[in-house]
Amino acid sequence: MFRSFRARQGVGGPQAIFGSLFAWVRVPKPSRPCGPIRESLREFIVGRMAIEPGARYPANTLLRRRRHSASSLAREKEIHPKTLNRALVLTGLVPEGDPDRVDGHLSVEARTGELLADRLADATSVARIPDQLGCTRTQAEQLVRHEFIDRICGRTGPDETMSNMVANEDVDAFLVRFRATGVPVESSDANMRNGIDAAKVAKRKVIDVVRLVLEGELARVELLDEDLRLKSVLVDPDEVGRLLDAREARGRLPIREAAERLRLKNGGVRALVTERDRDARPYLRAFVKGDPLSTETYWFDPLDLDEFAAGHVDLSTLAEERGISPNALRRQLNDDGIEPIFSWERLEKLVYRRADL
Questions:
Q1: Rounded mean pLDDT of 47-73?
Q2: Burial 48-72 (b: 16+ CB within 10 A, else e)
Q3: Which of 84, 195, 316, 352 has the fewest beta carbons under 10 Å from its own?
Q4: Cβ distance 135 to 196 under 8 Å?
Q5: pTM (2 decimals)?
Q6: What are φ and ψ of residue 115, in 5° steps?
Q7: Are strands 253-254 and 221-223 parallel, antiparallel or unpaired?
């Protein structure tokens, strides 16, 4: 009944949705007891719909709110309902919703929705992070892209504005974590540099230096005044270079060998690194070695290559597995609505997710 009501875009609450069934269980006649369906219907209503506290649905009064709709939560938190609805859908809290249309019959668990609304009220754009951390726009985007600072919606998506929103408290929390392993000093060693300058000296990316600090890999980390923000953390560029060189040599493969293992060309492997999958993550993780101002050199963990190969298959291999011609299989896949991860031009072959097949 609920699905049918939503499908025809009906308007109204439980009375409109359940009609005479709702009226019957709400005020049952002594001669016609409802039985257990009364409590079942009540639990469905208060467990799926945004019912106001104090309402009787049916019989017992609802003492506290259990669910919020986008509209009820927007009223409580004084946020525009369309903005809040978009956030609820894009974060997956209301996965069946439409980011462009507020549906009053869809709801979220009250406390979960309130936490998201509070983060949204405290949100700022990625473009404002440089002012808060004292870094460049590119460095701020890398901190978010590598998930050192979480997006409000947890992933990228078609909505550029929403996918670039972060909570101010998460930016502050990142700085606390970044300084956590350091030792305060009044004056630093002559060889120590802040993370941004150390990356330039070591000819590395700032994001690699940040990762070493956060993972506690550096033996020497010094702290200046917190007002210097990202530049308040000092590291030894020589130590940074040695550690990153050691990491890259630890069984990782250059792009040429990665391409051979995946039976792709180098350009196809680069596409897997730079493009994002359905979860807004790179199809293939890469480690970057070399001068960040020059052409990037990618290195790959063999386990990552094996994982990609196990989860994907090219058209020719799949056709051989199924014993039909590639052209016939391609027509069959098209008819079933199954698309390759890229066009033929990107990889010079058609590659499919095995999970889609």
A1: 80
A2: ebbbeeeeebbeeebeebbbbbbbb
A3: 316
A4: yes
A5: 0.57
A6: -65, -45
A7: unpaired
